[in-house]
Amino acid sequence: MIAGVLQDLFQLKVSDGQISRLQSIGRKALQTGCSDIVADVRNSAALNIDETGWRENGSKAWLWTVVGKLTTLFAVRPSRSRKEFHHLLGKGFSGIMMCDRYSAYNHLADECRQFCWAHLLRDFQAMIDRGDVSAEIGTRLKESGQELIHHWNRLKLNQIQRATFNKHYRRLRAAILDALYDGTLCSEPKTAEICRRLSNECYSLFVFAHHAGVSPANNAAEQALRKSVIFRKLSFGTEEKTGSQNLAVILSVTETCRRLSKRPFDYIMDAVKAAFSNKPAPKLIPQN
User: Fold this and answer.
1) Rounded to whole angstroms, how far apart are CA atoms 282 and 288?
2) How many angstroms separate the CA atoms of 58 and 214, rounded?
3) Domain boundaries, given as residue ranges, for the chain
4) Mean pLDDT to the nearest integer, 102-127
């Protein structure tokens, strides 16, 4: 595809091998900026994280994304295990993680992990769909959860004061915990099991209510992955590890540029020019 575009627009005949070599040169030129992104997410107080299936050389792999306050990091890894989590963020990460309830994040303390309420509301709807006593539990949980998110959104829009939000929060937190307890006694086994699990990790339901900068939903990470999912459907993944590394760097840099209101093309051009001139790469992240 790239060779065809170069031929059609610029009458340049470039082989696939040359394109691959140039991509590797570009990755090296952008490596300083990508390293700054890694450092920024590792030092962030709160992160959003998600992963989606990928293909590398025809084998199953995973594309991870980590969204910090200013930057977004991508990486193609062979699995979605705890080992890969530590590879991305290091074993010393001590911030708050916005994530789903996947087991790779279970090592995080409850107060350092915020469950995604978008996923939770879908689980509560599934309880409703099962009918009978399960529907009663699911309705209580879903309605209380939706009201809690509504008041949080009002707080973010400065429509209510923190004291007003806290009043609603205490009332709705008690309602949710009561519903979870009743759900553990439910005769429907799937509903009872998820209520038991959430009761045991209930603090992770409400971290967002106590910490500024923590969202109740993992939208930031899911949105960051959307363009990559489209690319995967068009390309069927990457053929080699070097291709995955090139992809991760360019995605990290371009998405971070977008969030910083920088033109990705301008930054990439400046970084490549600096590399060919043996000059330091331009700074990607503004210094405090």
Assistant:
1) 16
2) 37
3) 2-110+218-276, 117-209
4) 90
